[in-house]
Amino acid sequence: MSAIEIRGLHKTFGSLEVLRGIDLSIESGEVVCVIGPSGSGKSTLLRCVNLLEEPSAGTVSVDGVELTDPDVDIDAARRRIGMVFQSFNLFPHLDVLGNVTVAQRKVLGRDKAEAERVARRNLERVGLADKVGAYPEKLSGGQQQRVAIARALAMDPAVMLFDEPTSALDPELVGDVLGVMRALADEGMTMVVVTHEMSFAREVADRVVFMDGGVVVEQGPPDRVIASPEHERTRTFLARVL
Ligand code: ADP
Ligand code: MG
Fold first, then answer.
1. Whose CA is nearest to atom 25 of ligand 1?
2. Model pTM score
3. In whole angstroms, how far apart are CA 194 and each of 52, 112, 139, 219, 226?
């Protein structure tokens, strides 16, 4: 059984067809990097995987649950999907511990002690065990993004989706966040990562998916797709970003 199964996925906004038939199977423990030009539909694809956007056609299943089934408990299914965005969206009025416990308590119904125990364990994973009492404004962008990753991990997701998690960061802060993601990959987390970090894709991804114009143009092991792409569109894109 695949961790994520996407079949015949289409998404239109009005007359704009943004996803034009995506089929992707992602195995448990697989790390897939999605690359492609701005506007090619990468974010829309991730947003359809956790139903932040409703697909216009096709099916999406995560961890054996078909999210596009009208009878599914979508809130329950969505809890199994961790999402990390370019903008970290921490609650400014809560300290780090509060940010990592609030959804555990409100959504999963964990008591305070349990939520804090899980939060501390996950803050340790992202290297921020010493920041539990800090407020977001006192943290660097890289630290805030690592708190956002800990917050997602604290919900015990079956899969983690990352949408350009380092694009908003100063260059010197990118490495710490990528390091945390690399460690997660090494632990066997199933991950879909939209990124322009080609060295990360090359070293960490099991598979690279190149999208353009709402379709998957080509995919395969990073050595092949990045080092010797088959399609002209992939070559043109890589020539710009490498
Ligand atoms: P990428 O992440 O690859 O840059 P997106 O998935 O964000 O691409 O966007 C793909 C296309 O869909 C773009 O043309 C964008 O303007 C359009 N789009 C995305 N979200 C919406 C929306 N909510 N309403 C209308 N158009 C949208
Ligand atoms: Mg995007």
1. 13
2. 0.97
3. 16, 34, 24, 14, 15
